[in-house]
Structure formats: C-alpha cells, structure tokens
Amino acid sequence: STLFPYTTLFRSAHTAVRCLDHIGKPAEFALWRSITNRDCEVRYWGVLALSGVTDYADEYIARVKGSLNDPDRVVRVTAIRTIGSQTTVPDIAIPLLLAALEGNDEQVASSAATLLPDFGTNGLRAFNALSNAVESWGPSAANQALIALVRLAPKEALPIVIESLRSPDPQRRRGAVARLCAYPVTTPEIRSE
C-alpha cells in the first residue's frame, strides 16, 4: 500500500518522542519541536514529556500554551493539565486556566476547574468564573466546577451548592448532595434549608 511509508513514519515519530522522554534534559529541544508535529499522539507525548525536562515553569508554560489551541482535544486537555500543575507560577498559569474555563470545550474547562484549587488562595480569583460554569455547563463539568468552588471557598460556595440542589437535573442534584456532605450539619444555612 502507498500509505505504508506514512504509517511507519508516524509510528516511528511516536516511538521517537517516547524515547526522547527517557533521555531527559538533553532531549529538551527535540521534545519542544515535537509539540508541533502533525501526528496528535506525538504532540500529546511531547507536551507530557516536555513538562519533565524543562527546568522553569514559566518557560514550560510559554512553550506549551500554543497547544491549548490544538485541533485535538486530548492534546488540549493534556496541555491544560500540565499547565495547571505549574503551581509555582500562579500569575502565569491561572490566567490560562481562567481562559479555559470560559472556552467552549467543556472537557478542557472541566480539567481547568479541577486544577484551580491546587493554587490555594491564588485560585480564589476564579470564583466568579467557576460559579458561572456551575450554571452554564453540562452536569459533569458543572460538578467539577462545584467541587472546585467548595475546595476554594467553602462558605462562599454554600449558597451555590444549595441552589444546585434545586436543579431539575438529577445528576446536578446528586453532585450537590455529595458536596453538601462536606459541610457540618450545624452550619446555619444548612439547618434553615
């Protein structure tokens, strides 16, 4: 078949990136180049591997933030997850996570929501975006935003949790009940409901 050389080439590129990952720091430049490869698996492995060999978080984020616009969802989710793991540079990472929250891909946004509490009090600037996500996203992604809200600011998130209990969607209500269980029964807002 005439496709054989191309499939072999793609498989070779994928294998090469996986091998470069094991080489470590000396392979950094080649791994950086791999995140623009035409094969989505190569880009995926490149984003993952680059996070392990780049010395500085801000440098890593600068290199992979273009992958947030990748045509492949798996690459975008991997990029947001690795950017979100760079908690030492909240002023660089959080704006990218916020942009992902406001994007139109719920899977990427859900991943961003999951990572924001890892930034501690720095993540509080995402409170409004997360509360909007609880209302506008589908049930699964909205539940991730609700979890993040409760982790970031439990007291401020309680009215949103209680409001989610009134949702007509059973999956949203189930998520709200699970979040509500994290609060002490003696909380005045819970006792009044």
Question: What would you call the structural class?
Answer: mainly alpha
- Helix share bin: 55-70%
The counted number of beta strands is 0
User: Termini, distance in Å?
Assistant: 68 Å
Give the overall form.
elongated
Tally of individual helices: 12
Order of helices and strands: HHHHHHHHHHHH
For the largest beta-sheet, the strand count, sense and barrel status come to: none
Uncertain runs: 1-10
What is the strand content? Answer: under 5%
What Rg do the Cα atoms give?
20 Å
| Average predicted local confidence, pLDDT | 86
How would you describe the overall organization of this protein?
- The protein is an all-alpha fold.
- The chain is built from 12 helices and no strands.
- Helix 1 (4-23) packs parallel to helix 3 and helix 6 (90-101) packs antiparallel against helix 7.
- The model is unreliable at 1-10 (pLDDT under 50).
